[in-house]
Amino acid sequence: MLSSSLTQEQRLIKNLVSEFAEKEIKPVASEIDRNCAFPAEIVGKLFDLGFMGHFVEERYGGSGLDYLSYVVAIEEISRACASTGAIVMAHNSLACVPIIDFGTEEQKKQYLPRMCRGAVGCFALSEPESGSDAAGIKTGAVKKGGVYILNGTKSWVTNGREAEVAVVFAKTDKTKRSGGITAFIIDLDAPGISLGKSESKLGIRGTSTSQIVFENCEVPESRVLGKEGEGFKVAMETLDAGRIGVAAQAVGIAQAVLDSSTRYSREREAFGKKISDFQAIQFILADMATGIEASRLLTYKAALIKDRGEKYTKHSSMAKLYASETAMRVATKGIQVHGGNGYTTDYPVERHFRDAKITEIYEGTSEIQRIVIARQVLSELL
Fold it and tell me: pTM to 2 decimals?
């Protein structure tokens, strides 16, 4: 499991999260999925353990940990329940990280301690008519005196119904595309904010994915995150890092499928043999294990490059692309190993199959990742 490449602290984190996930999360994962229930009690325990303030410096109440320990934790959580993994990722890498990276000292002091103690965060970029084309958002922010007036609708917001704090992107100059976007930190109990519809989803059903509607919502100038007109930069850098977490989630889902498929193959009999004795099944398991190990290596490498402070855009996209597509392949084959049983809710592999698909879509589709990787490769030859 590549444990030899981890420091002692990282191995301790892996063991702690693995034990917590096995005892606290895995036993209720099917129920979370079946009832589309946000796992509030589990999330509360993750706050208590410090994993909801993973990157936040200790002086703000966080754990101050690195990216490699983060991907180790996300893999273990997602191995038990991808919904819980998505909640932790959206809070840490999409809500906390942009405040850590772009926030003023005043903003950090005001928001980060709250977000380590129990205030769930979310990231509001996508809109009903703007997904992959992030520069095409329509939500507007008009400055009047010392406040901005926001109007518009955000869609596909993970943690949208539970969040208290949101990093929101709006056009402050509608004559421009990416250069006209500004990022804001917004308290979601402010006047002029309401929740729109919640999506009924194929997978990660324990997360809320909802619209947030802004109607003449006044946001103080002091809540601008970064500089006016630099919101696109905030969004893209945040997503670059977030993709490493999605890769780890995909690895966790795929590992859960391999675990289940291996166990099932040793128990299921056909033609007087355990199906694990058949070479056809052995080959499937071999391909699964190889793809997962390659995905994990790519994910670890991206995390290590980020931890070293080097440029990691290409590697985060590579990890996300390969791990997510591996998760989908592994999940598909996992159902095949389980046969008809794999098509029922009696076995967790069908949940893993449904959960795996989103990793190819959110925080940049596979097609977007290929564009990013190609641009990086071509620029390296100049």
Answer: 0.96
Among this protein's residues, is 380 annotated catalytic?
Answer: no
Report whether 210 contacts 160 (CB < 8 A).
yes
Task: Give residue for tokens 């809070």.
Answer: 91
Say which of 127, 363, 367, 380 is annotated catalytic.
363
Q: CA 306, 18, 78, 115: dihedral to nearest 10 degrees?
A: -60
Strands (E), the chain: 121-124, 140-144, 147-158, 165-171, 181-187, 193-198, 209-220, 224-225, 269-270, 273-274
Question: Which residues are paired to 228 by β-bridges?
Answer: none
pLDDT tier at 5, thresholds 50, 70, 90: confident
Angle, helix 279-307 to helix 313-338, in steps of 10 degrees: 160
Using alpha carbons, select from 377, 378, 366, 359 the residue that is nearest to residue 132.
366
Summarised one tens digit per residue, pLDDT across range 127-165 is: 999 989 999 999 999 999 999 999 999 999 999 999 999
CA pair distance 257, 251, nearest whole angstrom = 10
Q: What is the pLDDT of residue 2?
A: 59
Task: Please report which confidence band the pLDDT of residue 381 belongs to, taking 50, 70 and 90 as the band edges.
Answer: confident
Other CB atoms within a 10 A radius of the CB of residue 311 amount to: 10
